[in-house]
Amino acid sequence: MATDIEKESGVNHFNTKGSDSSFDEELTPKEQRALINRIDRRLVTTVGLMYCISLMDRTNLSAANIAGMEVELNLIDFRYSIVTLVFFTTYVVFQPPSTIIVRKIGPRIHLATITLLWGAVMIGMGFVEEWTQLVALRIVLGIFEAGFFPSCVYLLSTWYTRYEVGKRYAAFYLLGCVASAFAGILAYGLMQMKGLADLSGWRWIFIMEGIITCLIAVIGYWLLVDFPDKAHTSWKFLTEREAAFIIRRVDADRGDSAVMPFKLSSFLAAGLDIKVWGFALIFFSLTTVTYALAYFLPIILHGGMGFSIAASQCLVAPPYAFAGIVMFATGWIGDKMRFRGPLIAFNAILTLIGLPIMGFHSNNAVRYFGVFLVTAGANANIPQCMSYQANNIRGQWKRAFCSALLVGFGGVGGIAGSLVFRSQDAPGYKPGIYACIACGLLILVIVAVLDTKFYFDNKKADRGELKIEGSEAGFRYTY
């Protein structure tokens, strides 16, 4: 009889070639649930907490800008946009090597080290005297943060089956939304340290958040877990019996738990698959909107809608809280119903409804309602896109390549997002609104094309005309 975990992952057995079924027999359904819950608490919570601080560190510029940084560093003309976008030049370039490094040295050392280093850079940002110094530190920050998100996406994908990963990605990213929701409130509180040690309030935003980041890095080193094949030897997170169970259930779901020796040609060969570029373009379109909100929402609320500085920083929180609800709800539905594309389309439509309201309505209260829809639709689609990709590829190194490519295009979206809302377009910011609408429409087109391809490829596989992703075990696309 299939266990509860087997039913959730959509398979009827875990035996693979050369495995010992006694491992599975020793794990009762109750033990299986307890094991998965333990992995969730340790893995998802830890990477989510570290991502929370990552997103906060990456997007605190807007709060610091309206807190006095703009005046003190003379951020005139395009200087603020330059400060935001230079981060992504190194952030994009250094992502592909990171998924190789994390597989080689393990997530504990890799993720904790880069988190500690970017925390130190954050502290340094609180002591800059010229805007060019801030630019230089943002470039260095991009180097260290580049490896974090793709490594986390890859790590999570190795632990869970295809129809478990949606909720986990949603929970992981939800913690990032919590950071975005309360970053403005935290920044406003830190601003009140103005004058302490003769430092401006905006400087304390960087210094204190940098110190918090360094503390989280140390905690993360002790709490992070390794890949499943090393989890029973790395700090004894799992027993050998438990690790074998996790590996076999993932292998039964998609048949790619084995890690092949690294070859650069094999790693790069994943780039020949056209669908991974489709996933990447979806992610680019999403992050263009999410980063635009992250970098400019307080500025739009203050300069575009007329709210006070305090209100602008605090009013960022409710839309992100609403986004968290939509995000987890769609993640749960996607895992339960086993589809991804329609949910991505739903969230994109939500964004497309919100953008004209946010940009063109004459009433500021109604425009603020539009912010809710845009923030929810765009951010809820981030874990949906990650799940869409993770459900439709096989192979450890292909998974590593695709995670890096996906997040790399997300970095390019960050560059676009840092430029779409320009100061000269205030208070309506219409060019930025048009750009975000174009991104939403592009998402709908790509999802329609990919889902159509997946549907017909699955039909061919059912007739025995096609082996999807080279699988001999009946792997099918999720659309």
Automatic annotation (TrEMBL):
Protein name: MFS general substrate transporter
Residue ranges constituting the Major facilitator superfamily (MFS) profile domain according to the UniProt record: 43-460
Composition skew (Polar residues), residue ranges: 12-21
Keyword Transmembrane helix attributed: yes
Pfam families: MFS_1
Keyword set includes Transmembrane: yes
GO cellular component: membrane
Compartments (UniProt record): Membrane
Organism classification: Eukaryota, Fungi, Dikarya, Ascomycota, Pezizomycotina
Membrane topology: Multi-pass membrane protein
Keyword terms, alphabetized: Membrane, Transmembrane, Transmembrane helix, Transport
Protein's organism: Patellaria atrata CBS 101060
Transmembrane regions: 78-97, 109-128, 134-157, 169-190, 202-224, 276-301, 307-329, 341-360, 366-388, 400-420, 432-450
Segments of this protein annotated with the region Disordered: 1-26
GO molecular function terms attached to this record: transmembrane transporter activity
Residue ranges with Basic and acidic residues bias: 1-10
